[in-house]
Design brief:
Blueprint (H helix, E strand, L loop, with lengths): L5 E4 L1 H14 L4 E5 L1 H5 L3 H4 L8 E4 L2 H10 L5 E3 L8 H7 L3 E4 L2 H8 L7 E6 L11 H12 L4 E7 L12 H11 L6 E2 L3 H6 L7 E2 L26 E13 L4 E2 L5 E2 L4 E6 L16 E4 L2 E6 L7 E4 L11 E5 L5 H7 L4 H6 L7 E3 L1
Parallel strand pairs: 1-18, 2-3, 2-9, 3-4, 4-5, 5-6, 6-7, 7-8
Antiparallel strand pairs: 1-10, 10-13, 10-17, 11-12, 13-16, 14-15, 14-17, 15-16
Helix pairs in contact: 7-8
The protein binds pyridoxal-5'-phosphate.
The site of pyridoxal-5'-phosphate has 11 residues, from loops.
């Protein structure tokens, strides 16, 4: 018998979430962001369910090659561009669209002999200060690219730092507009948060990631409650042991949970080596046999403990939902001081995945 943990991926939820994106941005094309192995879901497992997308965006060459070799013929965007000049051969060979964010990349492109023009995403640093050219340089850089015969279509791209918070996007939109008003051609600005909440940023292509997988860009599930988004991943396991505690008994490493009364504790086959956050404190929500309860004590590598007080019927073999349809991953993440993004991308390879 395998260990009873598994992650189930819902194809219909993915499909639904892409439709939600289309409803929010009806006039834009969609880059479905599948970096980090499709936010932990597995590109190979899910890309066909997103085939009605207009393109896939990611940043690892091996993921781009995987998509091409699996049969995807449409656009693929390298969000971080190329990492050394030699990568341009692969970009040409696999017909990838590449972001360009630094001067060395311009130089590399200018001497590259492409078999057909390479489509470029010219990255503007509008305030996040990770990648991109300052808006003041944008027109100059655009001109250099436009003069290169090996360059095809040039799209202006920028990324938002605060699209999920009250600060919003206008401060960055202002920066972009100042430097790029004279530049023709398509634009791509919106991540998930801007796709949902800032329609003025949609332009030609939106770049949603986390919402395709049904989690909240802000970390708060209330913020996506009325969107129709559905979680794609259900992480499930089972109770593999039950302990009857009396007052004073402790549970797990460091004895961090101490019982104040007599009650039962269930031991669940799921730990941090499965991707469950070790920093989730006692009190993190979890569902046992369809009843909401909480974790107790320190999460171990392979196990965690749950309070069975609200679950008198629970016993060895009772099903446990760590996150999924009935328990938003955002709530688990919030308790652990992180985001659904981190939990999804941390799903461990040892967890068997079922695609439904
Ligand atoms: C990851 C990423 C996205 C998608 O972000 P979400 O918040 O998951 O929607 C979009 N654009 C760029 C450049 C990214 O790196």
């Amino acid at each position: 018998m395998p260990r009873p943990i598994s992650a189930t991926l819902s194809i219909s939820a993915l499909d639904n979430n892409l439709q939600v994106v289309r409803r929010h941005a009806p006039h834009s094309k969609v880059w479905s962001v599948v970096k980090a192995n499709a936010y932990g879901h597995g590109i190979a497992r899910i890309w066909q369910s997103l085939q009605s997308t207009d393109g896939f965006a990611l940043l690892d060459f091996n993921e781009a090659v995987l998509l091409r070799e699996a049969g995807w013929q449409g656009p693929i965007l390298l969000l971080e561009g190329f990492f050394n000049p030699g990568d341009l051969k692969e970009i040409d060979r696999y017909r990838l669209t590449t972001s360009v964010h630094s001067h060395w990349q311009l130089a590399a492109l200018s001497t590259f002999e492409a078999s057909k023009p390479v489509n470029i995403y010219l990255k503007i640093n509008s305030g996040m200060n990770r990648l991109g050219f300052h808006p003041n340089e944008a027109a100059d850089v655009w001109g250099q690219l436009r003069a290169m015969p090996q360059v095809g279509e040039i799209t202006l791209m920028s990324h938002f730092a605060t699209a999920d918070s009250p600060e919003g996007v206008n401060w960055q939109v202002d920066n972009i507009e100042k430097g790029t008003q004279q530049i023709p051609g398509p634009r791509s600005l919106a991540n998930s948060a801007a796709t949902l909440w800032h329609p003025q940023t949609h332009h030609d292509w939106v770049r949603p990631g986390i919402i395709l997988y049904g989690a909240s860009p802000s970390g708060s599930v209330q913020d996506i409650a009325n969107t129709g988004l559905k979680p794609v991943m259900q992480l499930r396991s089972e109770i593999i042991a039950v302990q009857g505690l009396v007052a004073g008994d402790r549970v797990g490493y460091s004895g961090r949970y101490r019982a104040e009364r007599e009650h039962r504790v269930g031991v669940v086959a799921c730990g941090y080596a499965d991707g469950y956050p070790r920093h989730a404190p006692s009190g993190t929500p979890v569902r046992v046999g369809g009843v909401q309860t909480v974790t107790l004590g320190t999460v171990s590598m392979d196990m965690l403990a749950v309070d069975l007080t609200p679950c008198p019927d629970a016993q060895i073999g009772t099903g446990v939902e760590l996150w999924g349809d009935n328990l938003p991953i955002d709530d688990v993440a919030a308790s652990a001081g992180t985001l659904g993004y981190e939990l999804l991308t941390a799903l461990a390879p040892r967890v068997p995945v079922i695609v439904k």
